[in-house]
Amino acid sequence: MANKTHSFSSLNAFSKLLLDYLAEKPELKAFYGNGPQIAKFKDQISEKKGFPVATREVLQTVLSEQYAAIGAEMPAVDLHDENTFTVTTGHQLNIYTGPLYVIYKLVSTINLARALQAAYPSQRFIPVYWMATEDHDFEEINHFFTFGTKYEWNTPQKGAVGRFNLSDFPRIPFRNEIFDKAYAEGKTLSEAVRMYMHTLFGTHGLVCLDADDARLKSIFAPIMEADLKQQVHEPIVRATTEKLEALGYKTQVSARPVNLFELTENDRIRLETGDSVDIAKASPNVILRPLYQETILPNLAYIGGPAEVAYWLQLKGIFDLHQVPFPILLPRNFAIVKTQKQAEKVEKLGLSLADLFKNELALRRDFVAGRTSHKLDTDGEAQALQPILTELAARAKAIDPTLEASVLAEKARWMKGLERLAKKLKRAEERNQGDEVRQVLAIKEALFPTGEWQERHTNFLEFASDHPNFIDDLLKTFDPLNFEFYEITL
Q: Which residues contact 121 (CB under 8 A, 6 or more apart)?
């Protein structure tokens, strides 16, 4: 697996907020705690050192029971030990793992734990996958794409997706022993996901946590009660959001007066001001879920995508309110994977990764312009005509003021005519380069299927089928502290 990396800024594909956060711009310092550097984990460990022993005991018990429920042994983890800490990523329970970037998140998290183990050998670091079992947006997770085919699970079940039973899970024509076993033997979607994630990543120390547990909720109960009864979080998040937006940044989430749902047997009901609920049945929304995570885990860092990093920055104030240490935020690793044949085609066409990130129109235009020996624009001619037509307008006005408008109208027509001519020249040259242009668009579609980033669309099995060591190779390739985009050739 060969690779090279590219700076985020060179691809023109990442938000200013993420780039400024990674650059640790002073204006953003108020929105997080320790910065995204290995050296900053020393302070983060000190801040999390007082994590409650009682919470550690509950967490260890819950995890042990969850693994026992699928007949598996939890990775060797002693969460009772005050020197044991976690680093976490979270994601929905996509079937068959969903798009590639879910795998990238997990690999990044495992590698971060390894990097910390090397840097701080007196502590123990556990990579954790926070399973979004209480999410209810089933349409986002009920499908995956591989080899150009969409596979989908349709079910009438509603509510928290982790509780969905698998009685109507479809027989996916794309066979894979790991997933076939998980979906056949798991009683719920949560169990199935834990089973296949444990098979894929358990030997690398990954621990999967389903926080939909009354014992864990009881630890978080005081914060949920404050949200439900006093609505304390919405004004804090709103104020932080306004500050970020005043700095010119785009924000991701909005708080509500009450940021909780009630989980029933078959539904997930949004709670409103004045409602009451058994706290054991309460479920935190996107605003409170990060706080829930950091309350029940001895966690040091959260690894997420650009949007996740952005919305975590909106939440610093509610962490401060409850005196919960804010984790170090790290973006996951990003990558595009090419076969050797595709890599050779890209090189032959003289395309860069930045070229491929362009939309189809810009890619086609710039490719043609970069290969032609002809001048295709009419900017020079337009610039040369400007003073001539301006002089004509002045001369006409001196003779008869009413003629100026006619000359200016002619000037506008000339400029429009030059623009039309330039478009015709470019289209003609594009036809001349037709074969190469078609090859460019074909490689663009192959690497950015349906116009999406490959990692947001394609399932990892498309590569792992022919490269069984694909995940192991990613573990060897990715560096969670190297904030660049990976271009990988198999």
A: none
Phi, psi dihedral angles at 152 (to 5 degrees): -140, 145
Closest CA to 7 of 487, 395, 359, 470: 487
Cα–Cα distances in angstroms (integers) from residue 283 to residues 106, 338, 376, in the given order: 24, 41, 60
> Tokens standing for 226?
């404050």
CA-CA distances (angstroms) from residue 213 to 14, 31, 199? 36, 30, 23
Burial (CB count <10 Å: 0-12, 13-18, 19+), residue 418: middle
**How much is the average pLDDT of 120-132?**
98
Angle formed at CA 463 by CA 462 and CA 467, multiple of 5 degrees: 135
- Residue 319 tokens, joined: 């962490």
Q: What pTM was estimated for this model as a whole?
A: 0.90
What is the token pair recorded at 5? 């990396």
pLDDT tens-place string over residues 183-228: 999 999 999 999 999 999 999 999 999 999 999 999 999 999 999 9
In the sheet with 268-270, reading across from the earlier edge strand, the strands are 268-270, 260-263, 282-284
Other C-beta atoms closer than 10 Å to the C-beta of 156 total 6
pLDDT at position 429: 64
The candidate with the shortest Cα–Cα distance to 25, out of 36, 38, 11, is 36
Distance CA 312, CA 107 (A): 21
Fold of 2-336+466-474: Rossmann fold (3.40.50)
Q: How far is CA 279 from CA 66, 190, 214, 222, 301, in A?
A: 21, 21, 8, 9, 27
Nearby residues of 156 by Cβ (< 8 Å), 6 or more positions away: none
Mean residue pLDDT of the chain comes to 93
Contact 13, 451 (CB under 8 A): no
Domain boundaries, the chain: 2-336+466-474, 338-458
Phi, psi of 252 (to 5 degrees): -110, -35
**CA triple 203-307-329, angle to 5 deg:** 55
CB 213 within 8 A of CB 62: yes
Q: State residue 284 phi and psi, 5-degree precision.
A: -70, 145
In the block, which residue shows the tokens 């970020």? 244
Are the C-beta atoms of residues 258 and 227 closer than 8 Å to each other?
Answer: yes
